């Protein structure tokens, strides 16, 4: 498991979102795995998630009051143990005050074995003050199907390779969307990953770029809209096994029922 994102509606047709394809993803990006360093000003909606003051993964700001993360990142946790840090490019920048979580809403159908319905919604004790370094990301419409090859962006402070070092700076990487049919075929002979309608898959056939340990709960965006949360997979950047993400579009009804967004 990996404990390890504004579109015109004219582009939406019969449920397929037509976005730049895999050919539009630069081939020379230099870590995440296979990406490069970036800044919080470019991705002000990404946050760091902590358990008992120990870094655990990522989270994604969707309003001043609400933050999304992966369900497995808060499974079995009390609100008193979970905090966030926002607005910082460096990893574990202590001068950024800890944000207290008032409520944890893990999906009632979350399954810790299959990692299905892998989403948790956090209500913050105090509203965030938005600015250049702290802001929300737009949510997608419901039940959008992204076309294969659509270019997506993933950001986080996860390891730079499987069991490798953690970066000192926020990382970004571009990966192409893979259909769930193809993704399920790749994982058919495994028991670690289950590809359901609540799952979105992305990655290169040759591997080399992916989210990794410590990225979970962080955003996968397409043209600046949140379509996925880093969720699961086997290893990191292994071409045989795409990265899997919580499909935010398929869970919009649940998000709305909790947040009103």
Automatic annotation (TrEMBL):
InterPro entries: Peptidase_S1, Peptidase_S1_PA, Peptidase_S1_PA_chymotrypsin, Peptidase_S1A, Trypsin_dom, TRYPSIN_HIS, TRYPSIN_SER. GO terms for biological process: proteolysis. Residues 1-18 form the signal peptide. The keyword Transmembrane does not apply. Keywords: Disulfide bond, Hydrolase, Protease, Serine protease, Signal, Zymogen. It comes from the Eukaryota. Belongs to the peptidase S1 family. This is Trypsin-7-like. It comes from Agrilus planipennis. The gene is LOC108733922.
